[in-house]
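Posting for a labmate who doesn't have an account.
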Amino acid sequence: MRSASTSGRAAAWAVPVANEVAVFARSVVLARFLGAEELGKIMLLALALRLVEMASDLSVERLMAQAMDGGTERMQANLQGFAVLRGAGLALVLVLLAVPMSFGFADGPTALTFAALALAPLLRGFVHLDYRRRERRFDYRGLMVVDGGAAVAMLVSAPFAAQMVGDHRAFLVVLMVHVAALVVLSHLVAERRYQLALEWGYGLRIWRFGAPLIVNAGLMFLTFQADRLIVAGYFGWSELALYGVALQLALLPAQIAGRAAASLLAPAFRRSLAEDDLASAAGPALRGYGALALVFFAGFGLLAGPFIRAVYGAEFDVTPALLWALGLAAAIRIARTPVSQLAVSLGKTAIPMRGNILRAMALVPALGLAMSGHPVHALALAAAAGEALAALRAWGLLKPHLVTTHDSAKPVGASA
């Protein structure tokens, strides 16, 4: 069985690290140029875009990595075709949501600004997936060029956009630079000719694989993003910026771990499943991510406050209670990353979804805490409790499947 080389593993970790660091650096640049209130409005724009993206994410890249025929030209053409269709649909949804979003938040972005977000998913739909196909053979060079290059373009454009535009609309310029670079680079590194197809049979496979993940993605929006909407509604733009900065820093390692897991663990689990050896492959992954979670929790609680003040400025002074609570929630998220990947590798995509239902339910007490005047760190403690319940639920659902024999395991992405 071929596995990732040392350099391949390094690339699989380096690219998501570079991407998340670039996003974090973009936030720092915009905060320094525009201030806390404008950064809060930028976070609301990012939330609107993230909402529609996560609520329609069919995870075509995961299907390409894990399906037995994921590397075929026909499968790739259909995945690319449905990606274009999804991008057009997202653009329409964002345009329709523009006016309601502009009325929902006083002194926030205008309807035209919200509508302009539609250009991003429309263009992103034309990404060439060939660089993701190469991950099936643990070749991450395309990933480094495309994702890494787009992240660099985004970061370089941030100070110029902030100076030229002068307010939260600078985010639109930076966003379009990033998406355009992603699309162009994906076509430049492609080994195959770009093809689009929309076949009913493949569409049904994509839907069966991705539908539970769409629900899960919607739940993840509620777990990762919706609390910021509560903060925006009850605490104001500056408080949203403080909460958002701390949360972004807390989630950065979790997002890196998740993206690296998608590149490394998914193909490795797929091959272990083919050899009827998934249970033994799961142990090291679970232990490794558990250790990462503990190290992160201690480091974040002790260092995040001074780091945020040094990087963002004295205006961004986050309370220790909020930092420790957010760190705990993110640490639990890191620890359960391989559980989600194992479930997806087994084709049990409903398991992460069912676990995240409990995490999303934490928004109910969080909203109640905000309405009753509790401090913002109480919302983060509710999030940590939700993460713990989600982790226990997902593991309880997954554990019996790890003893399933290869003969009874259903190939990932296969038709029902």
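Reply:
Got it, the structure tokens are right above this. The chain has one domain: 6-405.
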